[in-house]
Amino acid sequence: MKRNAILSVLFTCLLLLLSGSAFSGDTEYYARCNLKVIKGSYITWVNWQSTPTVVPVGTKFIVSHNGSKAQLEDAKTGKVYNLDIGASGDEYLEKFVTTKRIKIKGFSAIVQKNIKKALAKVGMTKKEVYIAMGPPANVDRVNSNDKTYEKIMQGNLWVYKRKRFGKNIGVSFDQDGLVDRTEGIWRD
Predict the structure, then answer these.
(1) How far is residue 37 from each of residues 49, 62, 72, 187, measured CA to CA in Å?
(2) Range 117-183: architecture per CATH
């Protein structure tokens, strides 16, 4: 009997390892960046500046995922969001959520205002832009579906898609990692 119990535990552990990763269970995480929501519950990579709903950076989620699809449940409201993370694996999901709460209170008042409006402005750092606008669709002219957060942060030209036929939003960084140019961003 003892042998069967040990085999059962080993089999369960093997199934857990094969079924996914640390994110595949219901685990608490925080929004790494502002998340744009369309169609009521779909988090999109499209940075539609007309998108009325933004889930703010730091929002606490219960996360579960399978492959390249994820569900994020707002721990406070219970609202469930669907997300296509672009590729399969924790390292790609981490473009959207993190185990550590991101706090914007340490940034200047103007940067906090831009983050809350989901805008990139000249002089902002890569981290500040990422928090404000989320992961770009393209980095240095290459699709970012299979890029990790760390790889995205190495790029110096980020492009955010807008609507299907709309002008894209471009953010260019200088050698110090500061925004030196933006295109397609609505002005205040």
Answers:
(1) 11, 17, 12, 21
(2) 2-Layer Sandwich (3.30)
